[in-house]
Amino acid sequence: MSPDSKIIISNRFRIDKRIASGGMADIYLGEDISLKRKVAVKILSPNYAGDRNFVARFKSEASILTKLNHPNIVEIYGWGKFDNSYYIVMEYVSGTSLKELIDRKGPIDPGTAAGYALQICDALGAAHENNLIHRDIKPQNILITPENNVKVTDFGIAKSVNTDVTRTLNIIGTAHYISPEQARGDILDNRTDIYSLGVVLYEMITGDIPFRGDTSIDISLKHINEKPVSPSRIINDIPKNIEKIVMTCLKKEPSERYERIEDLKNDLNSFLKNKPLRGAGKKREFTAANTFSEKLKKNPGPVISSVIAFIFMVLFISYAILYHREEQPSPAVIQVPPLKSVSIDTADEILSLLGLKIDLSGEEKSSEIPENHIIEQSPEPYSSIVEGGTVKVVISSGEEETVVDIPDLTGIEIERAKEILVESGLKAGTISYVFSEDFEENTVISQDPPQGSRAEQGEVIDLQVSRGPETIIVPNIIGLDFAYASRHLESLGINITTGMAPINEKVSQAGMVVSVEPGPGTAVKKDTVVKILVSVAGPLNEIPSFEDMNIQQVRALLDSLGIMYEELYIDSDYSFQKDEVLGQWPQKGSYLPEDIPVILYIGK
Prior knowledge:
Blueprint: E1 7-9, E2 13-21, E3 25-32, E4 37-44, H1 46-49, H2 52-67, E5 76-82, E6 85-91, E7 96-97, H3 98-105, H4 110-129, E8 132-133, E9 142-144, E10 150-152, E11 159-160, H5 180-184, H6 191-206, H7 216-225, H8 231-234, H9 240-249, H10 261-272, H11 288-298, H12 300-327, E12 333-335, H13 344-353, E13 357-364, E14 374-378, E15 384-386, E16 390-396, E17 403-405, H14 414-423, E18 427-434, E19 444-448, E20 454-456, E21 460-466, E22 471-473, H15 482-491, E23 495-502, E24 513-517, E25 523-525, E26 529-536, E27 540-542, H16 551-561, E28 565-570, E29 581-585, E30 591-593, E31 598-603
Parallel strand pairs: 13-16, 18-21, 23-26, 28-31
Antiparallel strand pairs: 1-2, 2-3, 3-4, 4-6, 5-6, 7-9, 8-11, 9-10, 12-15, 14-16, 17-20, 19-21, 22-25, 24-26, 27-30, 29-31
Helix pairs in contact: 4-6, 4-10, 6-9, 9-10, 11-12
């Protein structure tokens, strides 16, 4: 879809222009035609519209947002299928993302940061009350309005705490902001959002994230194993209480963080009111007994049933073991053979002959072990295992791909573009900034090598990034000769119109600039029209157009009007342009004092 195409969705929402791009979807600025208000339209990228997982994730976000009606969560107006893809129409939030704010201004005042965090807590509180975990809290998903109101967006990977789907086998979310349990693939609860919010708060008050690395895996391992540097070691005057709040959110074990988002809110309010904290830094103990007693109070029926079933199962297993020991001969003990580099079929035959079973537990890329041959085994070679036992193996899925497809980064915000490159196994190379009328500031204009080509892993991609539209400062030309001033403005890329004004105290003679609008020092875009008032002691001549006229015709016209003129001969591109007027100064519709000549540019 063209970013500038005018397309109507559901006979109601008009798409005006693309304003952002992500790995999964593009976001367009549009208008709700019936209600005459701006909207943001999120459309699933065509590359993913045929992928059931991505479509399910997209629909899930729309479904979730319809349930969450909160002032700190972006509101949804509608969603559905469109042009072989899917769309979500949301509230348009003017302003900037928290990530852009931090990148532009650096560390945020702790009081302001705590205020933002409180609003994020309110949004997460609404989600948690609906048994939803956001799972992707990061500054890029937090919008700040000009009134400093916070809007949380992108619930694309939010999940219910009531389902096992909150256990992940892959790292979901952005590596810089995921919790340790999310990185490990553990079952998650609301405290994973508290950890991610802690990372965001850390970045707000220090201007940097707690962990960096070359790859998402490197960063994830640091979340699991390393303690973040205290914010006060980065910026000396950070208040101790805000640091305690941050470090409590960033505890590795969920049980040591704030238990609920409300507990975090209480401490943030205490910090803002300069009162003692209640939850930060305190040791929490969550035992199986505590969890059991809580469940028993909330819903005793299922818990008691589960306990009875568990006791019955323990008694049954104990009886079976005792019976087996008394009635059955002891099973043989087998020494596990070495299976590394053996094909999976051969290994299966070897283990069958020994009375053992084989279990394929995974695959990995390998440049050393051929495809479908064993890389790892458990138990280890030569260890003992009971006859009938199982040996788990990991096999090679072939050589690791060293060549990757270069993604399309055009129109994507530069920090997100860098993340996409890292996720693709590539790196950002030279980044050059140029003015652009077509691309928003800090978005990628072009890349080298281009999208669609292939590159070796680790190769650098050079990026050209927009500085936004070029601006020109209107110079102070008041009191200068009009002919010089107007040529100077045109040389800067500014267009002019003229008017007349009487001589005043600023100028002493005719033909001088009396005023300019917009005034000196104003920043304007290229080709902006600036109005100049010229002092006159007598009447002014209005200058006509000389387009498609030869010099003889122009001379006759100017002589009849009593307008002075000068002729300048310039090289022409074609023979038929000889003696034709190819340009003029000033342009038609301008005014000149009678004693200032019109300049004619004539082909020779």
